[in-house]
Amino acid sequence: MDLIASIKKHDARVGIIGQGYVGLPLALLFSEAGFPVVAFDVDAKKVEALNAGRSYIAHVGADRVAAAVARPVPLQATTDFSRLAECDAILICLPTPLGKHREPDLSYVHGAARDIAARLRPGQLVILESTTYPGTTDEEVQPILETTGLTTPADFWLAFSPEREDPGNPTFTAGNTPKVVGGVNTESTEVAAALYSEVMERVIPVSGSRVAEATKLLENIYRAVNIALVNELKMTFEKMGIDVWEVIDAAKTKPFGFQAFYPGPGLGGHCIPLDPFYLAWKAAEYGSWTRFIELAGEINTGMPAWVVGRCAEALSEDGKSVKGAKILVLGLSYKADIDDDRESPSYELIELLMARGADVGYCDPHFPATRPGRAGHPIMESVPLSAEEFARYDLVLLSTAHREFGDPALYAGVKLAVDTRNVLRDGWGPRVVRA
Questions:
Q1: Is 363 noted as a catalytic residue in this protein?
Q2: Which of 54, 149, 312, 350 has the lowest tally of Cβ within 10 angstroms?
């Protein structure tokens, strides 16, 4: 195939739609391998930053972006989707949120497919990376592309390859994380695998796009169910006077048959809180009810309310109520040491505490101010990271385990702290309540 030959010579032009936490690392990976890359995004500020060699994602180094745009064959960012016609391979890295009734919202994927269809030409490869339910690639994307009169595999190739980004992970990156790929036909799998094999250490072809789609869902459902399990055990063991963190540390000494998962204040990120419900929705079409997914979702979505209840109990022991109390929430990011607040439980904690009449502030070195757009959430600014500031509050609630929050000196003047991440230690100053 001419495209495979072009891929092997690194002459194939790669277009990547969406320059967020998935698309930008992927664009840099192909650029660093010598491919000509066109990075598409509707956000003009992102495009301007990339073309100026600046990064807007903390864990993606600005030096990598600067190097990519300075190469003899530079990475080019654009809002001009007519340039999709130039691209030999087009990768879709867009969000797949849930609607208000937890139904899949494929509007971004549909929009991208229509943009591609308007410029589709013979010999192009299209790959969907956005997490979704089995059947999306062949039932949703393929028909849109084939409205052009072109068909696969005769004229173009179409595949699904799930993103496996773990923001802030120092060990596994886009390049060394094994890459699963499945086409809507054998030819599409072959071409897509050839593309990824040029930039990734290991590529795993599977029998079709639906297997690849289901693989991503299994990975996230596995985490969601096990996190729900330890969250439920945390609440149960708390009533028994047992420290769930000590139990987990003891259990993980077993060298086989056990993998440690950890409780928290709720689920965050774009994957685990949302993706399992894509399968639950699709399974209902087949008359199958995914009870583990629904139960895990019920437990995990209930954790912020349980944490707020623990805050109320802790304040009550000090003769105070939530109403009128000054409460500081530590961390807006959904996980430690990154600047990603998508679906972060910290927002719900803040909203629940405010609804009960608390005077709430937050501290997060990665977020000087909250981002606009969350319904019902006011714009707030982070308070200074200092012992003097922390001491002004009746209760400090640790929601995200940023490394900055592990400094004992910060808590010297704090009287009461609720810790959802097992960071704080007795003797640091405050009375510590685990939640």
A1: no
A2: 149
pLDDT over 70 percentage in the chain: 97
Q: Strand order of the sheet with strand 125-128?
A: 76-78, 37-40, 14-17, 89-92, 125-128, 157-160, 179-183, 203-205
Q: Choose, from 87, 93, 271, 311, the residue flagged as catalytic.
A: 271
369 forms bridges with which residues in the sheet? 381
Q: How far apart are CA 304 and CA 347, in angstroms?
A: 9
pLDDT attached to residue 321: 97
Reduced to 3 states (helix: H, G, I; strand: E, B; else coil), residue 434 is strand
Residue 373 — very low, low, confident or very high, per pLDDT cuts 50/70/90?
Answer: low
What is the CA 256 to chain-centroid distance, rounded?
A: 29
User: Could you say which architecture CATH assigns to the domain 302-434?
Assistant: 3-Layer(aba) Sandwich (3.40)
For residue 326, give the H/E element and its range. Answer: strand 326-330
Q: Which two tokens stand for residue 334?
A: 């959904």
Containing 8, the helix (H) or strand (E) segment is helix 2-8
pLDDT of residue 249: 97
What kind of fold does domain 217-300 have according to CATH?
N-(1-d-carboxylethyl)-l-norvaline Dehydrogenase; domain 2 (1.10.1040)
> CA angle 419-423-424, nearest 5°?
70
**Whole-model pTM?**
0.91
| CATH T-level topology, domain 2-207 | Rossmann fold (3.40.50)
Helices (H), 34-81: 44-51, 62-70
Tell the residue number behind the tokens 């990598």, with chain if given.
Answer: 64
Please state, as a whole number, how many other Cβ atoms lie within 10 Å of the Cβ of residue 164.
19
Same fold, 2-207 and 302-434: yes
Residue 377 in contact with residue 357, Cβ under 8 Å? no
pLDDT tens-digit profile of 162-213? 999 887 788 898 889 999 999 999 999 999 999 999 999 999 999 999 999 9
Listing DSSP states for 134-192 in one string gives TTHIIIIIHHHHHTTS--TTTT-EEEE------TT-SS--TTTS-EEEEESSHHHHHHH
Q: Estimate to the nearest angstrom the gap between the alpha carbon of 298 and the chain centroid.
A: 20
* DSSP assignment letter at 104: B
Q: Residue 31: which of 12, 3, 44 has the closest Cα?
A: 12
Domain segments of the chain: what residues?
Answer: 2-207, 217-300, 302-434
